[in-house]
Each structure stands twice: as C-alpha cells, then as structure tokens.
Amino acid sequence: MHRFGLIYGKPVKDGRYKRMDYVGIDIGSTASKVVARGKNELHFTLPTGWNSKETAMVIEDRLREAGVDVRSDATKTIATGYGRVAVDFADYVVTEITCHARGGIEFAGKDCAIIDVGGQDTKVILVRQGMVQDFLMNDKCSAGTGKFLEIMANRLGITLQELFDIASQGDVLPISSLCTVFAESEIISYIGEGRKREDIAAGVVDSVAAKVAQMSLRRELPEKIMLTGGLSESTYFAKILSDKIGRKVENTSHGRYAGALGAAILAEEKSKRRAKKNEH
Predict the structure, then answer these.
(1) Backbone phi, psi, residue 144, to 5°
(2) Which of the two residues, 44 and 6, has the higher pLDDT score?
(3) Structural contact between residues 19 and 39, judged by C-beta atoms closer than 8 angstroms
(4) What contacts 275, CB < 8 A, 6 or more positions away?
(5) What is the DSSP letter of 172?
(6) Percentage of residues in the chain with pLDDT exceeding 70?
(7) Is 88 exposed, middle or buried (0-12, 13-18, 19+ CB in 10 A)?
(8) What is the rounded distance in angstroms from the CA atom of residue 158 to the CA atom of residue 127?
(9) Phi/psi class of residue 150: alpha, beta or left (left: φ > 0; alpha: ψ in -120 to 50)?
C-alpha cells in the first residue's frame, strides 16, 4: 500500500488480528481526527467544540454506526491530543509526540522531521531509525499556529482556504509583531490604509511560515521533512515553509490524520505484544 495513498498505513496481514479493530483518536483543540484499521478501515474528522468529553461521545456513536464497537474486547483504542483524557473508553492514552511520530513515519519513512502545525501548538519532531530523537514544541503563543491564521482570516472576512488562495496572488506585507493581539492590530491598520486584501493575506501566511521555520531551524533537519496537521492540505503553505527553511517540505492531503493514524498503529502493536506475551 503506497504511503501517500490510503491513510491506514501498512495493512493488517495476520488473520488473527484482522478480526480486531484498532482505533486512533486525536482530540485536537480545533478538530478531532479518527482512524480505524484492521477489520474495519475508516477515517473521519469533526470539530472538537468546547467540550472534549461530548466530542468523544459523538466519536463513539459514529464508530458504532460504522460497525466499530469501542467497548468491545475486539477493539483496542488509543487516545491522544489536547483532549485525550476525555476519551474514557480508550484502552491507552499516549502523548502527541509519540503518536505523531508513529503516524509521520508512515508518510515519510523512518528518518525524517515531522512539522505539525496544529490549532493550539506547533511541534517539530525528529525521527531517526523509527525512534523519536528530539522534539520542540511551541504551546505558549498562538502566533505560529493554525489558530493565528483562523483569527486573521476571520478579520479579513474569508475562510482559511480562501486566505491561502488569495495569499498566493499577493505581495507580502510585513507583520512584525510576535504577538497575535498586536499582529491583529497591524492588520487592522493595513485594512484602514486600504491595502489589498491579498497582500495582507500573503503577509499573514508569510509570518506564520517564518515563525515555524525559525523554530524548526533550531535543530539540524534531516533530508526528509513532512508537514502534518490541518495546514498540510495547503500546498501553498508547504511551499512558503520550504522557502523559509531552504529545503523541500513535503505535504499530503491526509497529513491532518498523522496523530490518529499513529495512535491506531500503536494500538495494534501494543495489542500484538500483549497477546504474544500471554502465549508464553
């Protein structure tokens, strides 16, 4: 199975485990992603909303409708992400770094850097020979995250996708502030001056890419760099980030599922290890 085709990773081959369902649930601050593999293969995303516990209940219902019973002994579930502790039916709770690294390996191989730009934070994970070697995380300020882009898109009266679309047609206006509040004030000033919306949009995207690149370049990056998270669907953002880093950053339309995919694969691996241990 091609890594950039379906998002389920390498297929479950052992007949004993094909009867099982392995579920990964990534409760992010903005969106929740779900991947199931094994007997049933499916994936979906939904807004997290204000209550992660309610979101987990909706996920359970949707999985049940698709034939996956998370309360069954034939299903193993790992929860990760911002709201992972709210998934009370999960068999295991695993950190975002571990799950995003495992999912990123499926997309980029065992030696890579994974740059995950999420709604609440940005993560840079360095993987060597399939193991996490190092990581950096920005979770103190939203200026280099997807939330910043959403706030600025709302200020411009457009969607996030429209922000990228018009930014690609504009000339960058500098946004110098490192703080979201002050950056928004700069944008309001540009609007008041009658500057072109596409130029403001280009400045917004350039500002986020610059902050993510600055963080990424604090470590020596390997040849393979993969963009994950919601912004991984934007080829334009990947290109701007590549220019800032000075090396190609690959993206995939399924990159937002990296954490959930990694969690599902880890659920399978943990289940197999436990089963083999019980056999001896």
Answers:
(1) -110, 35
(2) 44
(3) yes
(4) 16
(5) P
(6) 89
(7) exposed
(8) 36
(9) alpha
Instruction: Identify whether the C-beta of residue 266 lies closer than 8 Å to the C-beta of residue 98.
Output: yes
Contacts of 193 (CB under 8 A, 6+ apart): none
Q: What is the pTM of this model?
A: 0.87
Residue type, 178: L
Cα–Cα distance between 19 and 27 in angstroms, integer? 26
Which structure tokens are listed for 88? 């009370």
Q: Where are the beta strands (DSSP E) in the chain?
A: 21-27, 31-38, 42-47, 75-80, 92-93, 112-117, 122-128, 131-138, 225-228, 250-251
CB 137 within 8 A of CB 123: yes
Rounded (10°) CA dihedral 276, 72, 92, 114: 90
Digit-coded pLDDT (tens) for 97-146: 999 999 999 999 999 999 999 877 899 999 999 999 999 988 666 566 77
Buried b (16+ CB within 10 A) or exposed e, 131-165: ebeebeebeeebbbbbbbbbbbbeebebebeebbe
Q: Phi first, then psi: what are they for 172, rounded to 5°?
A: -65, 125
Q: Would you state the structure tokens that stand for residue 100, as one six-digit string?
A: 């995003």
- Cα–Cα distance for residue pair 155/16, rounded to 1 Å: 53
Tokens read off for 110: 């065992």
Instruction: Record the tokens describing residue 258, joined without a space.
Output: 């990296």
